[in-house]
Design a protein that fits this description.
The protein is mostly helical. Helices cover about 90% and strands about 0% of the residues.
């Protein structure tokens, strides 16, 4: 039996899992914090402690949505990406 017959599907699953985690983290954590930082800094002109405080709150809210909406969504995305 060829070793590629076993390692290739496993490699595809791990690759799909890595891209899914990157996608979920980008959607629920990185993009909202980045957008909030731009809005708070350049639109509202916040600096220093108030800026850090609000970004911290945004980060906690993003973490909540990641835990409640993002992690359950990982299973669905993995099934779609690894479907035969």
């Amino acid at each position: 039996m060829d070793s590629n017959a076993i390692t290739e599907p496993v490699s595809n699953v791990f690759s799909a899992m890595a891209f899914t985690l990157i996608e979920i983290l980008g959607l629920y954590m990185i993009m909202p914090v980045f957008v909030a930082a731009i809005i708070f800094r350049y639109v509202f002109g916040l600096k220093g402690q108030s800026f850090k405080f609000l970004i911290g709150i945004v980060g906690l809210v993003c973490l909540y949505f990641l835990a409640t909406k993002g992690f359950p969504q990982i299973g669905e995305i993995m099934q779609q990406k690894t479907a035969i």
